[in-house]
C-alpha cells in the first residue's frame, strides 16, 4: 500500500511517502511559514522525486488536530481534496498521538505529548508505551490549563515522559508539581514525523471523506470572542438581527 502522510498542526510541516511500512521519502521543515503555500509544493516535490504518480496513492493519512487552528484546517482540506479527487482512502490521526509515536520509549512508559495553546493552556494527551512497541491512549486528548493537566498527572505514582518542543515553556511548572517523576529528553523527536504518522494510519479505519472533520478541541479565537459579545443572544434573536442587517 502506498501512503501519503502529512502534518501541519504546528509551525512544523512534515510530509512522507511510505510503502508497506518502508519510508520512501520524508521532508520536515520546522520554521514558521505559511503552510497554505508550502504544503502542496512539498507533496508534489516528493512525488516527483520518487517518481510516483498521484493516481498510484492508496491512502492519505493526515494529522487531524489538535494544534494550530489554521494549520489543521489546511491539512484536512488538502487531505480531503486529494482523497476525493484521486478516489483513495483517507485516515485521520490525532496530532498528539502522532507526536508521541514519533519517538521510542521503554516499555510501560507514560507519555504526555504537549502543544502550547496559549494563555497557560495546553493541548495534551496521555499514552502508554506497551511492551509490543505500540502506544495506547490512557486518557482522551484535551485542551485545558497546564495547572489542570498537572493536577491529574500528579495522581500517577510513576515517571512521566513529556514530549514536544513546547514542553520547556512549562517545565518549571511541571517540575514544581511532579518533581523528579517528570522526564524530558532532548534526544526524543519533538515534532511530528510524517513517517510515523503514516504507520499509525496504515492500521486505522478509513474515514468517510465528505463527513471527515478536524478535531480542534476548542473554538477558534474569533468564535470565542463572538460568543463573549453575543453569548446571551438566543438563536431566534440572532436570526432576526442577521435578517435586519441584510
Describe this structure in words.
The chain is an alpha/beta fold. The chain folds into two domains: 2-95 and 192-220, ATPase, nucleotide binding domain (Nucleotidyltransferase, domain 5), CATH 3.30.420.40; 103-184, Nucleotidyltransferase, domain 5 (2-Layer Sandwich), CATH 3.30.420. It is built from eight helices and ten strands. It has a five-stranded mixed sheet, sandwiched between helices.
Give a quick rundown of the structure.
With 246 residues, the chain is α/β, with parallel strands linked by helices. The protein contains eight helices and ten strands.
Write out the strand line-up for the largest beta sheet, numbering strands in chain order: 3-2-1-4-5
Number of strands: 10
Assigned CATH superfamily of the largest domain: ATPase, nucleotide binding domain
Please give the count of helices: 8
The CATH class of the largest domain is identified as Alpha Beta
Largest sheet: 5 strands, mixed
Indicate the percent of residues in helices: 25-40%
* Low-pLDDT windows of residues: 236-246
Q: Supply the number of structural domains.
A: 2
Measured distance between first and last alpha carbons: 52 Å
Relative strand content:
25-35%
Quaternary assembly: single chain
- Could you report the average pLDDT, rounded to the nearest whole number? 90
| Outline type | globular
CATH topology of the largest domain: Nucleotidyltransferase, domain 5
Q: What string, H for helix and E for strand, traces the elements in order?
A: EEEHEHEHEEEHEHEHHH
In the CATH hierarchy, the architecture of the largest domain is 2-Layer Sandwich
| Helix and strand composition category | alpha/beta
CA-based gyration radius:
20 Å
Keywords: Transferase
InterPro entries: ATPase_NBD, Gcp-like_dom, T6A_TsaB
Protein name: tRNA (Adenosine(37)-N6)-threonylcarbamoyltransferase complex dimerization subunit type 1 TsaB
GO molecular function: transferase activity
